Amino acid sequence: MSQRRILVTSALPYANGPIHLGHLVEYIQTDIWVRFQKLRGHDCRYFCADDTHGTAIMKSAKERNIPEETWIAQMKEAHLKAFTGFQIEFDHYGSTHSDANRELCGSFWQSLLNADLVVEKEVIRLYDPKVGMFLADRFVKGTCPNCGAPNQNGDSCVQCQATYDPTELIDPKSTLSEATPEKRPSKQLFVQLEKLHSFLDEWTQEPGHLQTESANYLKNFFLKEPLKDWDISRPGPYFGFQIPDRKDDYWYVWFDAPIGYIASTKEWCDANGQSYEDWWKNSDTEIHHFIGKDITYFHTLFWPAMLKTAGFTLPKRIHIHGFLTVDGKKMSKSDGTFIEALTYLNHLNPSYLRYFYASKLSANDGDLDLNTQEIISKVNSDLVGKVVNLASRSAKFIQETGLSETYPEDGGLFQQASAEGDAIAEAFEACEFSQAVRRIMALADQANQYIDQQAPWKMKKDPDQAQALQDVCTVALNLYRQIIVYLKPILPELAEKTDTLFNKPIEHWEDAKTPLVNQSIQKFKHLMTRIEEKKVNAVIEESKQPEEAPIAGGEFQDSAEPLEKEPLSETIEFDDFMKVDLRVARIVEAKEVPEARKLLQLTLSLGGEERRNVFAGIKAAYEPEALVGRLVIMVANLAPRKMRFGVSEGMVVASGPGGKDVFLLSPDEGALPGQRVH
RNA sequence: GGGCCUGUAGCUCAAUGGUUAGAGCAGGGAACUCAUAAUUCCUUGGUCGGGGGUUCGAAUCCCUCCAGGCCUACCA
Questions:
Q1: pLDDT > 90? residue A674
Q2: Using CA atoms, how far apart are residues A632 and A195, in angstroms rounded to an integer?
Q3: In the structure, what pLDDT confidence band is assigned to residue A151 with cuts at 50, 70 and 90?
Q4: Phi, psi dihedral angles at A253 (to 5 degrees)
Q5: Chain B bases closer than 7 A to any CB of the protein
């Protein structure tokens, strides 16, 4: 296979807020893809930078009473800390506020001028006389001109969904100073994108450049009609780059941001004795941009147009991903699901999230849901239970002897898994990470079966079987290492620990094709620990922020979520209800069931001599001692159920999703054991 | 209102138009005791969203309806 030259970028995070788990979908996705390409031996480089310009940055700096440069330096440091923590490995991470970027912007600009694409037009905009600047839409609030709702944003109304120009707002107010803005004429520069319409038609529809859903979206939406002129300048004061030969005009942040990809490349090239033009003006370079679907517009229309005009190589592919939801909903600060990267890292291992995202990501732009129960189950059963367990259950048998001198007969397992590597590689290449993970886990299942069949722990008891024992463990550990080769792009840290275990680093994807033999093995140390639910809960707790002022409606603001999660059942008749015999019962004894993960054993009294033995799945939520003596509601006529630990003679009634969130029902004071509930 | 995507087991997802639709997790039963209560075997569980159509044959192709998601609007 010939070596490819691949340049990869992720979208530049805005230097105005911390990195959160939503951002990380993209950086983890990109990082996995880049690590995969590097492991395959390609000349692959990953560039990114902070996006540092615009009015929002000015506002933040102003609020803190510090220069913009100080603010963006602080943000960059925080961003890098988060990325490093999640093992996102850039070849270079720059900033759009750099000399390299300023120069490149100048050269792009000149190309646009030369191509006669820039025109000047006069527009009426809102101006804040107190602050002395024109106001971006987001910094104006006022009464909706359509429905009269007060306190609406500058561009649209949440009440009636109307969109409008901020100059149409009734009674507008600047959110920067509370001043009433003035309407002022402003001369602004526009790029006539329409002149490149046919090029964009062609480029966006060419197979391979975009996912089909994105190509369709552009075709049916923007490209169906003449493209609007792109408003590319902003009047000062504006934190950004001044446009050459224009006294008071700055490039709009979305002009200089994507050029930041090239500037970051250039900084790396300058430091490494290379020419950035070899990367960006070279048809042999594959350029891959990873972005979220919210910025499709900028990367699939403006950006190719700019590259084309300035004579740069066009992207080979734009990889567009969806948004992150948590437990099926948009991230929410009040729910504690707006989780910052650094908050996560305070409690949990980054590998968990890397693996979880990989197991959910595919090449389409659908949203990805982070479900707390699912991440626990996936990591604990796949990674710890299956993969790491392979090493854990075999390494210690051959710590003294090391791996066998020649690779033993294994019934073709290694060969088979080696061949599977091609299909796994194809899945990685196509960004079908979930498929790759599925295939890898199937290999782990096979390897566990092999160990079970061979039963090395039995061989260990018989000195005559010493060679067989070494051979079986040699196979098992090689199958394990092979899996780690495939997982290395996703889990670099686990791969490093595995390198240590085997005294031999994994350096290339092809390492999965050759078994290790005649090799000493380090003393086994735990490679990865299980996720504890309480740590996940701690992340959510730490992420919770006080609710913003309630919208309306008084003091009872119950969430609609429980009902959405478990909708009402169909209507039943009274007789149906009466079949269920609910009784008040007193817990007279409660004890742990040591072998059971979720169960407590309860002895319930229905009064008099009537006792019931009930197993309840509430171990995670209640201490046995705290339960003794309290009254609960039980289903008293439920058919007895034989369980592994004994017969359960009914059930106690509780609400909640399960796990730690279980809430037993209690009757009000005065209720007596044995009384029926109706 | 329009566009795009999705709908398969309780949950997460597979299945080039071709046997009886499969995995993992969860549930039930058993085995094992090397391993971080991990693993292995057996097992329960499906109106492939509904209805039409094309076909020798449809989860898969076409039409239509329903539900969900995302995007976007007096425009496609």
A1: no
A2: 75
A3: confident
A4: -55, -35
A5: 3-6, 11-14, 23-30, 32-41, 69-76
Whole-number distance in Å between A448 CA and B33 C1': 15
The three-state DSSP-derived secondary structure of A64-121 is HCCCHHHHHHHHHHHHHHHHHHCCCCCCEEEECCCHHHHHHHHHHHHHHHHCCCEEEE
CA of A396: nucleotide with nearest C1'? B34
CA of A461 to C1' of B69 (A): 58
Query: What span, in angstroms and rounded, lies between the C-alpha atoms of A449 and A433?
Result: 25
Judged against a pLDDT cut of 90, whether residue A277 lies above it is answered with yes
C1' nearest to CA of A224: which nucleotide? B76
**A128 pairs with which residues across the strands?**
A133
pLDDT-based confidence at residue A471 (cuts at 50, 70, 90) = very high
pLDDT at residue A486, as a whole number: 97
pLDDT at A550 over 90: no
Query: Which CATH entry fits the domain spanning A367-513: 1.10.730.10, 1.10.287.1080, 3.40.190.10, 1.20.120.790?
Result: 1.10.730.10
Which nucleotide is nearest to A382 if distance is taken from CA to C1'? B24
Mean pLDDT of chain A: 86
3-state secondary structure of A471: helix
Report the share of chain A in percent with pLDDT over 70: 89
Scanning every strand, the nucleotide with its C1' closest to A389's CA turns out to be B35
Q: Which residue is nearest to nucleotide B36 (CA to C1')?
A: A529
pLDDT band of A178, cuts 50, 70, 90: confident
Q: How would DSSP label each residue in A502-557? A: HTS----GGGGGS---S---PPP----PPPPHHHHHHHHHHH--PPPS--SSSS--
- Residue A564's nearest nucleotide, by CA–C1', is B68
CA distance A136 to A647: 69
The two structure tokens encoding residue A497 = 């620990």
Residue A10, pLDDT score = 94
pLDDT tier, A595 (very low <50, low <70, confident <90, very high otherwise): low
Any residues with CB less than 8 A from the CB of A115 and at least 6 apart, and which? A195, A309
Q: Which amino acid residue lies closest to nucleotide B28, measuring CA to C1'? A: A643
Our measurement of CA A558 to C1' B58, in angstroms, reads: 46
Q: Which amino acid is at A538?
A: A
Residues in Cβ contact with A504 at an 8 Å cutoff, skipping those fewer than 6 apart: A516, A519
A155-159, A200-204, A210-214, A409-413: least confident range: A155-159
What number is the average pLDDT over the span A507-515? 96
Give the pLDDT of residue A663.
Answer: 73
Residues A574-664, CATH architecture: Beta Barrel (2.40)
B31: residue with closest CA to C1': A452
Q: Which residue ranges make up each domain of chain A?
A: 367-513, 574-664
Distance B16 C1' – A240 CA (angstroms):
53
Q: Which nucleotide is nearest to A216 (CA to C1')?
A: B4
Q: Return the pLDDT at A554.
A: 40
Would you give the DSSP letter of residue A587?
A: E
Look up tokens 């079949």; give the residue.
A579
CA of A384 to C1' of B49 (A): 36
Lowest mean pLDDT among A310-319, A410-419, A528-537, A615-624: A615-624
Q: How many residues does chain A have?
A: 678
| Alpha-carbon distance values, A106 to A99, A101, A276, A283 (Å) | 11, 9, 16, 23
